[in-house]
């Protein structure tokens, strides 16, 4: 029995079309989602506004954002979100009198690896208001590159709410002794260009810092993808 010529054509077209479908549709979809999006830390609120995805209305979500600030760096320049516009920020806490400067030493190494990548900026925020007169020499001792790694200091009324409510970290000032002591989170925070916290990492945990290094790259890829998509 002879096979219908039309059926032969349909079968042949199907065989030829399937690889093309896989290449032009499925492969780009896979490539687009090869990076798992990082979480967003902090409280979130469902807004009254909506956006549309494939004709379906989805409620917008308002995520926690690190509030704006104005602090002076080691070069006496004011640093704020306006000076960090469209930057990804890695930030840690420190004070110049601390015995352990492990997180600052780690940031030195990390910032050197991103010396030629202007998208990523590094901040070190002092928990000691007296450091306003000391951060210049402290930054120089760490060979901090100007424009890449800023050391910030300010009064506790400004800095401590930023740390606790903005960065979601802990800080306590113990001034009961002649020499004040500061207890603070030995953590590093990764912040995206929308001022949202995307990761918090223990500075003295090798697994955590390895995750930070990987997730900076993920956040860069997410940022570039959003720019390409016009978001």
Q: Count every beta strand, where a strand is a DSSP E run of 2 or more residues.
A: 11
CATH architecture: 3-Layer(aba) Sandwich
What name does the CATH topology carry?
Glutaredoxin
What share of residues is helical?
25-40%
Oligomer: single chain
List the strand order in the largest sheet.
7-6-5-10-11
Anisotropy-based shape: globular
Q: What is the radius of gyration computed over CA atoms, rounded to a whole number of angstroms?
A: 24 Å
**Residue runs with pLDDT of under 50 for 5 or more positions:** 16-33
Beta-strand percent range: 25-35%
CATH superfamily: Glutaredoxin
Average pLDDT works out at 86
Distance between the termini: 59 Å
Individual helix count: 5
Main features:
231 residues; alpha+beta; two-stranded antiparallel ribbon; 35% helix; 11 strands; Glutaredoxin
What does this structure look like?
This protein has helices at residues 5-32, 102-113, 135-141, 156-166, 206-229; strands at 44-53, 56-63, 71-72, 78-79, 88-94, 120-126, 149-152, 171-174, 181-184, 187-191, 197-202. 24% of the residues are buried. The chain has a single domain, classed as Glutaredoxin, CATH 3.40.30. The protein has five helices and eleven strands. The strands form four sheets. It has a five-stranded mixed sheet. A two-stranded antiparallel sheet has the order 1-2. It has a two-stranded antiparallel ribbon with strand order 3-4. A hairpin with a 2-residue loop joins strand 1 (44-53) and strand 2 (56-63). Residues 16-33 have low confidence and may be disordered. It is α+β, with helices and mostly antiparallel strands and 231 residues long.
């Amino acid at each position: 029995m002879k096979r219908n010529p039309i059926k032969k054509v349909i079968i042949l077209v199907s065989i030829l079309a399937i690889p093309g479908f896989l290449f032009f549709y499925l492969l780009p979809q896979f490539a687009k989602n090869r990076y798992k999006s990082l979480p967003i830390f902090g409280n979130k609120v469902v807004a009254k506004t909506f956006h549309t995805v494939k004709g379906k209305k989805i409620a917008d979500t308002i995520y926690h954002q690190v509030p704006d600030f104005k602090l002076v760096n080691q070069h006496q320049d004011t640093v704020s979100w306006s000076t960090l516009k469209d930057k990804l920020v890695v930030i840690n806490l420190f004070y110049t009198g601390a015995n352990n400067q492990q997180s600052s030493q780690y940031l030195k190494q990390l910032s050197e690896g991103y010396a030629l990548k202007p998208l990523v900026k590094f901040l070190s925020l002092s928990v000691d208001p007296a450091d306003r007169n000391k951060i210049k020499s402290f930054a120089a001792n760490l060979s901090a590159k100007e424009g890449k790694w800023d050391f910030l200091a300010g009064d506790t009324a400004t800095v401590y709410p930023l740390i606790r409510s903005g960065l979601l970290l802990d800080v306590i000032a113990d001034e009961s002794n002649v020499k004040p002591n500061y207890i603070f989170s030995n953590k590093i925070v990764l912040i995206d260009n929308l001022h949202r916290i995307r990761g918090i990492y223990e500075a003295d945990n090798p697994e955590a810092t390895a995750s930070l290094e990987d997730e900076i790259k993920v956040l860069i890829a997410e940022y570039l993808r959003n720019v390409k998509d016009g978001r």
